[in-house]
Amino acid sequence: xxxxxxxxxxxxxxxxxxxxxxxxxxxxxxxxxxxxxxxxxxxxxxxxxxxxxxxxxxxxxxxxxxxxxxxxxxxxxxxxxxxxxxxxxxxxxxxxxxxxxxxxxxxxxxxxxxxxxxxxxxxxxxxxxxxxxxxxxxxxxxxxxxxxx
Length: 149
Known about the structure:
The protein is mostly helical.
């Protein structure tokens, strides 16, 4: 239901008592608040899109990265030129693989402590459930065999 539809519904209601009238007025105030918040959200999105465009960054060329995600990443990274290489940048944002090999098997994974373990780092966005394409797997369990006696 849109705010306009809610207003139409509320306009069709006739309050039969002072309590019903108070409820109706509260409902109208809530719809007005939602309209105001929605307008603020649209304006914030427009301002963010203008700021990202003014930065000249090409991050929005990545499929699925809109102005809000781009603004968050650019705010986190600041100036990309402060990193000596792309490897330094990957290490900074937690997307550089680390080796967790055992024996002859070479295995690489992302560092779990990247970006001070903050959930606001780009590496955690990459690992977030929203970006995952497969269902999360349950952690492996081990069972201790009981001693036969």
